[in-house]
Amino acid sequence: MKKLLLPSFLIVCFSLLASGWVHAQDQRERKVVQLSGIILNADSTDAVPGVNIYVPKKGRGTSSGRFGYFSMPVLEGDSVVFSFIGLKRQTYKVPENMEDDRISLILTMELDEIALEEIEVMPYPSEKEFKEAVLAMSVVDPMTISGSNMSPEMLLRAAEMMPASGNENFRYFQQGLMQQNQDLYGPRPLRLLDPFAWAQFIRSIKRGDLKRRD
Fold first, then answer.
1. Helix (H, G, I), strand (E, B) or coil at 9
2. CA-based nearest residue to 69, from 19, 106, 16, 110
3. What are the CB-based long-range contacts (under 8 Å, 24+) for 164-171?
4. How far apart are CA 11 and CA 5, in angstroms?
5. Per-residue H/E/C for 18-84
6. Which pairing describes strands 87-93 and 79-84: parallel, antiparallel, or unpaired?
7. What CA–CA distance (Å, rounded) separates 85 from 48?
8. Is the separation of the CB atoms in 59 and 72 below 8 Å?
9. Please, are residues 53 and 80 in contact by the beta-carbon 8 Å criterion?
10. pTM of the predicted model, to two decimals?
11. Low pLDDT (below 70) residues in the chain
12. Quick count: other Cβ atoms within 10 Å of Cβ 107?
């Protein structure tokens, strides 16, 4: 029994070593290629930053930069996946037996449109409760609301809160500017102590200007 198990064990070990040697030999023969390129939107020339670029099950990957540029080393025969949320996933297979050790790509990615089923949004759990809520609703006449807003008290309050117009602001500004110029040359004159003003006032009384205004 031991004689039969020993040759079988040697055959299995030799097969594993041979397959490992063939796999290692295949890995050594595959050329390393520098894959570079720019990723753009399919409907424009805008760059797509942040695209995930990786080789599945190899642990190698990168992402596109601010201007959509990327660069990473790959092996001949690798399948490189490009994925981004909202865009269709694409796969690029590196050719075998390449003469050059560089590949430049201009990749365009299309929008991934997902059609969702129609959803009906209801304010109440059932149509029956919705009808009951509508029938129980107290509706106020819009004319009553507009009449209260157009009352004289409301209009007077709105007029008091209304800001000054452009003409009023300009007049106040001009008055302030004139007073400022007058203050540059001395104090403001007091008309009650001005004898010429009193003389004009007395002459206007004698002429009867006040009676004419009444």
1. helix
2. 106
3. none
4. 10
5. HHHHHHHHHHHHCCEEEEEEEEEECCCCCECCCCEEEECCCCEEEECCCCCEEEEEEECCCEEEEEE
6. antiparallel
7. 11
8. no
9. yes
10. 0.44
11. 1-28, 142-143, 145-146, 186-189, 210-214
12. 19
